[in-house]
Amino acid sequence: MSTEKVLKSIEKIAKEQEDFYKYLHSHPELSMEESNTANMVCEKLVSFGYDVQRIGGGIVGVLKNGEGKTVLYRADMDALPIKEMSNLPYASSVTQKNLKGEMVPVMHACGHDFHVTAGIGAAWAMANNKDEWSGTYIALFQPGEELGCGSQSMVEDGLVEKIPHPDIAFAQHVLVAPKSGMVGVYPGPFLSTAASIDIKVYGKGSHGSMPHLSVDTVVLAANIVTRLQTIVAREINPMDMAVLTVGALNAGDTSNIIPQEAVIKINIRAYTDEVREHLIEAIKRTVKAECTASRSPKDPEFKIYNEYPPTINDKEAAFKLQEAFKKYLGEDRVEKDYQPMSASEDFSNIPNAFGIPYVFWGFGAYNKKEDILPNHNPAFAPDLHPTMETGTEAAIVAAMSYLEKMT
């Protein structure tokens, strides 16, 4: 079978792939600053024979191979501002200036180095097995996923106009479940939409001994935090997933001074845009009402950022991919009861811009049940093997499920 031949071919680049992965892991780059990674990806794709463009901080390689469907596969490239504590021999010791100009440690603590490695491996396999498939394969490497802006940056830079229109889009993420060597596909809403909200409320400062002369922002903020807890509990249908987390409350720094300002930082999650917008509206309504009740002298300020769309897998495409995984990877390597997650991704901005179906799946990081260190942990260190191979194989199977020549 053609797909089996393409899968078999990646054995030829096993050592090269491992070296490439280790280099990526030890040379991470922050979101929207992935210049070295992007350059390496660009050089690889050009050497494979792809028509390559730089779009919105990302790299897109197009490989045309006759008539047929057009498949887009996306991999994200960015790392996180975390000091690595994995003790791997190829651990990162990199520091880099962030977008604020601060020097911070950098680590691939979310597995995007695996994503890039799989994307490059699949791109090589498609380029070196053109007799086995027909159509167009698009290898897209995206910046800035961790900030939630990278995919939209590519869209705003003309992605839709600059590349062939795909029929289907795919992406994947290395996760703590399923176990390493396995993949998991969920038809329907898989990852949540999310947003962060910073709220600044205003009061009237005073000496701690004269609270009657103040508008106390500490009490105001405390009332807001308490009242916010009723939004999910009393306004959202229990059948709909919704999360509202207050991650920070900052007001004053001295015991005998009532501060004039307070800042509340909130993160929200939902599986639909409708629930997300309900949460945002309810947060604003609640905060404004509490400010009025507290005699706040100035309207509160809201900053909404790090907005992620929901990831809703096309059911028909997801079932088709699941069957392809069972056929070519083996039923024992496909999670039987894979479940949605409350994490978020910005991948869907890309297929949504084209108006096409997509599937986003997970592949496993660890072959153990205890002492598992999750994504974003300073010691996050997935099993190199078979995780690297699984990501590459899954990307190939996804592409070939639409592009394989029928015999």
From TrEMBL:
It comes from the Bacteria. Pfam families: M20_dimer, Peptidase_M20. Its cofactor is Mn(2+). This is Amidohydrolase. Mn(2+) 1 binds at residue 173. GO terms for molecular function: metal ion binding; N-acetyldiaminopimelate deacetylase activity. The Mn(2+) ion enhances activity. Mn(2+) 2 binds at residues 110, 112, 146, 376. Residues 194-290 form the Peptidase M20 dimerisation domain. Keywords: Hydrolase, Manganese, Metal-binding. InterPro entries: Amidohydrolase, Bact_exopeptidase_dim_dom, Peptidase_M20, Peptidase_M20_dimer. GO terms for biological process: diaminopimelate biosynthetic process.
